[in-house]
Amino acid sequence: MATPSTFHTPSTSNPKVLIIGAGMGGVTLALLLEKANIDYEIYERAKELKAVGSAIGIAPNVMPMMEQLGLLDDIKGIYQVFKQMDVYNESPDGETLELSSRTEFSELKELSGYPSVSMSRPEFHALLISRVPAHKLHLGKRVLSISQDDETGVLIRTSDGMSHEGDILVGADGAYSSVRHSLYKQLANEGLLPSSDAEDLKVCHMSILGTSNPVDPALIPPAEDGLSRGCSVVGHNKPHSLPLGANGGYVTIGDLVDNTPQENITKVMLEEKLYNTWYHRRTVLIGDACHKMLPNAGRGAVNAMLDAVILANAIYEIGVDATPRNIQSAFREYFNERFPHAKADLEASQKMAKLNAGQTWSDNLRRKVVFKFMPASLMRSYFTRTLAYRPQASFLPKVECRGSVKPEPQKKSKRYQRENAIAV
Ligand SMILES: Cc1cc2nc3c(=O)[nH]c(=O)nc-3n(C[C@H](O)[C@H](O)[C@H](O)COP(=O)(O)OP(=O)(O)OC[C@H]3O[C@@H](n4cnc5c(N)ncnc54)[C@H](O)[C@@H]3O)c2cc1C
């Protein structure tokens, strides 16, 4: 096995990318690099891939990129249109739940050309994974530590006693990222870690009991009306009924839990943090590893996938000249584009969490006032602003805009234009 000082012969061709983590961000990046004809490998700690969680909402921002990857038709086969979100509050006497707000999402399709959708998370993840060549995905490989050197490359050590080498290392290994941990240790040793990044993730005082795939179809009917039905409970577990049963019937949260196989029930602690350091030398972070958001606005996985496309564009631009300088400038480009968007979405997720699930008296009041009196135009302007960001892979044929909101202008790939001109 190679040692860190001699571990890699720097690339004179496209760089070799090591992706750590086969979650939404890591797998999307792999699919993009595959299309860009860039060498990569994915290392995943799980011995078998089994996505946890029930439903996942995917906003239209990533759909043009999914279409470029040839995934849109398959996604259409598994999604349900996310038409509205209802929030229920306990009635003043504590006996029942009453509808406190309803947010409509139906206009997203007209604005962006794609609806906001909800899917089974395991199905969506399995679809993405099915497009990654099997020999590129290495399971049962928990990354324990990383080494990197400007001149020679990167090296990871995995729990099976092996080490693996490359030119670029991508930490797509989630909120408790080992790559981030190792990277920040190096930065701290070099006196380069900002103090804000030395602090741990902030765990918010909220827990969710997620149910997935309830077994009794009488309790949760298939969404014959095209609406998706998901359920999450904040805080206590009183036997209140919700209109989620068959033919508009009511069921309690207890019914949902009782009718869900034990192994599909997860209690999730929700953390949030926006890190300021996303790269150093040959290592870069994407997804929850650098921006962990509360799930209330459904933006975490969407941002992980948006990171993937912008990073893939930047890596593609490096071309055959993977010098430390070019790698740094690719990472800088990626960070400069993605950080403001991730920050805005993290803040929106914070606000949405408070609005939808805040438990104080003032949260309750704010919820009533905002949802009752907020003009529809304000919501539309929020959607318009958010949906304008629909970046695409710069090295694949562009997908036409089908919505009334034009996408933000995107930097063209010089390499793609050059190579296409030569091909023509
Ligand atoms: C309850 C809940 C609901 C949510 N709903 C939505 C939603 O509707 N829409 C949305 O956009 N987002 C949603 N999110 C957020 C979303 O799940 C995350 O933002 C997203 O999964 C992040 O993707 P990722 O690829 O960065 O990390 P992850 O999905 O966490 O993937 C990280 C991968 O890295 C692997 N790994 C970890 N450590 C190592 C290691 N040392 N070595 C090798 N592999 C390793 C893990 O096994 C995992 O496979 C929700 C989150 C929660 C908690």
From TrEMBL:
Keywords linked to the UniProt accession: FAD, Flavoprotein, Oxidoreductase
Please name the GO terms that the record assigns under molecular function.
Answer: FAD binding; monooxygenase activity
Q: Membrane-spanning regions, if any?
A: none
Gene3D superfamilies hit by this protein = FAD/NAD(P)-binding domain
- Where is the stretch described as Disordered? 404-424
Please list the residue ranges annotated as the FAD-binding domain: 16-186, 263-323
The record's annotation in InterPro entries points to: FAD-bd, FAD/NAD-bd_sf, FAD_mOase_fung
Q: What family classification does the UniProt entry report for this protein?
A: Belongs to the paxM FAD-dependent monooxygenase family.
Q: What is this protein called?
A: FAD-binding domain-containing protein
Which organism is the protein's source? Answer: Dissophora globulifera
